[in-house]
Amino acid sequence: MSAAIHRIRLAGGDLEFACAEGDTLLRAAQRAGLGFPYECNVGSCGNCKFELVDGEVADAWPQAPGLSDKDRQRKRHLGCQSQPQGDCQVKLRTMERYVPLHRPQRAAAVLQAVRALTHDISEFRFQVEAPFAFEPGQYALVWLPGVEGPRAYSMSNIADAAGAGGGCDFQVRRLNAGAGSAALFALQPGSRVEIDGPYGMAWLRRDAPRDILCLAGGSGLAPMVSIARGAMAEARLADRQLHFIYGGRTAADICGQDLLQALPGYGTRLHYSAFVSNAADDSAAYPVGFVHEAALQAHGERLREMEIYFAGPPAMANAVQAMLLAAGVPPDQQHFDQFY
């Protein structure tokens, strides 16, 4: 029996879209090609809020931190958590910048291989059983066995020209208290999961007339490696310089250089540097410092003339944002996806 289809109408106009039973309003709107605003896609950031005018929705995560008690009193919901129970009317403002470059789809995927990058970060290579197009820097949602709700992981690879290769490589840090990472690290080659994507706004701007700066920490390595791979393969960016700065707590946390060394232009157009934040680390392999400080010291006023992508732990992302704001970098030259 096929899933029921609900009609979702936007208040104040004639625009509507279809949402299959069990899908969320946000993802259904994206599948329809509509610019429903969002960022994290997992209930934390609150950027996909909408007002329910008529109808009923079920909240997959009623206590999602992206929604306040005041929001709930005003009949506001999160698009990424709301599953319609019938036809609905909603109030939201669609935006052109959120119109998907590739309409997301959900498909089965098989784990092909796992390899360690550091003591706590591994790369997981999946083969998606459907064509899977995406832009460098985007992410997908992954449903893992025994875990409630999806987890968002960024791709570190790039899609082939036609998007038909169906491959997704994720670089993920094992978290001691993380149910998602525990389930992922427990998978064996041949295991099957469900993947939904692509999503994300921090994708490579191929037409930007500026040099590129990638800032990464932890498993934020993945989307930045994807950006670097995409940039080095893009003919329109052949005269651009790309600077890649990676940060870790200690020398044991540093990775990524070998991935970039395999790309054309390494050492001439593509430059890598790494820093450790723990001043007590007795390794002399890397200088001590934070990513945002290293970027400011290396590039200074030139930051305003660069296209800047960053990903990493919340503290790092917040520090980078504050630094870029103080440095006068225009917002439309800053690209990141907000995760928690």
Would you mind describing this structure in some detail?
This protein has helices at 25-31, 69-73, 179-185, 221-232, 257-261, 291-299, 314-327; strands at residues 5-10, 16-20, 49-54, 57-59, 76-78, 82-84, 88-91, 105-116, 121-128, 139-143, 151-154, 167-173, 192-199, 211-217, 242-248, 270-276, 306-311, 334-335. It is of the alpha/beta class and 340 residues long. The chain folds into 3 domains: 5-98, Roll (Ubiquitin-like (UB roll)); 105-199, Translation factors (Elongation Factor Tu (Ef-tu), domain 3, Beta Barrel); 211-335, Rossmann fold, CATH 3.40.50.80. The strands form 4 sheets. It has a 6-stranded antiparallel β-sheet with strand order 11-10-13-8-9-12. Helix 6 (291-299) packs parallel to helix 7. The longest helix is centred in the last third of the chain and has 14 residues, at 314-327. It is globular, with a radius of gyration of 20 Å. The protein starts with a strand and ends in a 5-residue tail after the last strand.
Counted up, domains total 3
- The order of strands across the largest sheet is 11-10-13-8-9-12
Low-confidence stretches: none
C-alpha Rg (nearest Å): 20 Å
- First-to-last CA distance: 37 Å
CATH C-level label of the largest domain: Alpha Beta
Helix content: 10-25%
Structural class: alpha/beta
Q: Topology of this protein?
A:
Blueprint: E1 5-10, E2 16-20, H1 25-31, E3 49-54, E4 57-59, H2 69-73, E5 76-78, E6 82-84, E7 88-91, E8 105-116, E9 121-128, E10 139-143, E11 151-154, E12 167-173, H3 179-185, E13 192-199, E14 211-217, H4 221-232, E15 242-248, H5 257-261, E16 270-276, H6 291-299, E17 306-311, H7 314-327, E18 334-335
Parallel strand pairs: 1-7, 14-15, 14-17, 15-16, 17-18
Antiparallel strand pairs: 1-2, 3-5, 3-7, 4-6, 8-9, 8-13, 9-12, 10-11, 10-13
Helix pairs in contact: 6-7
